[in-house]
Amino acid sequence: MVYESKFIKEISDICKRLNDKCLFSNDDVRIVGIWGVGGIGKTTIAKAIYNQISFDFGSVSFLENVIVIRKTGGIHDLQKRLLRDITREKHYISSISRGAKVIQNTLQSRKALIVFDDIDDDLELLEYLVGEHHWFGRGSRVLITTRDRNSLHKVDDVFEIEGLNLEDALKLFGLYAFQQNLLDKDYNILSYEVIHYCQGLPYALKVLGSLLHGKRTSEWKSEVHKLKNIPNAKIQDVLKISYDELDRTQQAIFLDIACFFKGEDRDFVSKILDCCEMFAKSGIGFLEAKCLITVSHNKIYMHDLIQEMGWEVIRQQHPKDPNKWSRLWTPDDIYRAFISEKGMKNVETISLELSRSKEVFANMKKVFAKMKKHRLLQ
Fold it and tell me: 262: how many CB neighbours lie within 10 A of its CB?
């Protein structure tokens, strides 16, 4: 926590809500959700709170990476881990329903502090592992971290975690890039470029700070230039987890927003996408719950790194062949695709700038005739 000073206030706020005697007695069970995009610091905050208040509980457990363990070992593995932490004994679990009953019986008589780190909206997971308020003994506290707001419908409070401000982003990046919370004056301009690129996302600041540590200015310049063309794979992998959990229609809506509709009016976008049978109102709400977009004053916004992740999803289909992409949104790629005169049968959506070139205009009729999946021209 020494490096993420902005989180100190949020930790204090959450601890206060967990133990607010004006609203809840010491005997109340409190369940609190910590919600935010991947890499924003949810686990860091949960660990700090856990370390700060765990001494006050007779039984404690911090279940980290719940979704990963769920996929590899199943819910019964998570149940066994929780019971082992609470009782310090191994348990045989014959079924997840039996495991849920054992957990309930074990916890009802204990004042426990439990952290479920990285939960999704899997109904079985919520029903057989996280449980209900009455599962827990008097005075128990439960923290849930998640990227998905839909998994928090039974909690008492939800804290949405936002990105670092410029001052704290500078400190965090400086610690990883220069081993101090100040920037090296010889790298000031390049450092600010990286910090602007990260837009307050702690994980990105740490990854890029570590990557650039100890490198010469010429190498910094090369890496910064590379970022403008090729996103960092580690950062992309963390952000893409939420995208991979979407269904096909939700993924299509996300990619359309990333390429064409960022900053547009929500109702306007919904009408256009619904003409393509995209079920936009439901899909946009789901993307918001997943922290892939935000909606403010009815405008749709998206973090630049998440937008870049969406672009990369499309580009990876055929990295050097834009005429095979599902969407074309930059003038250079549109130009390359149109003048190639190759089939563009995969292209669904184009943001077309006709003034770019006479060659594009000349080839338009020929190219559109080959676009069998085309549904939207912006």
Answer: 18
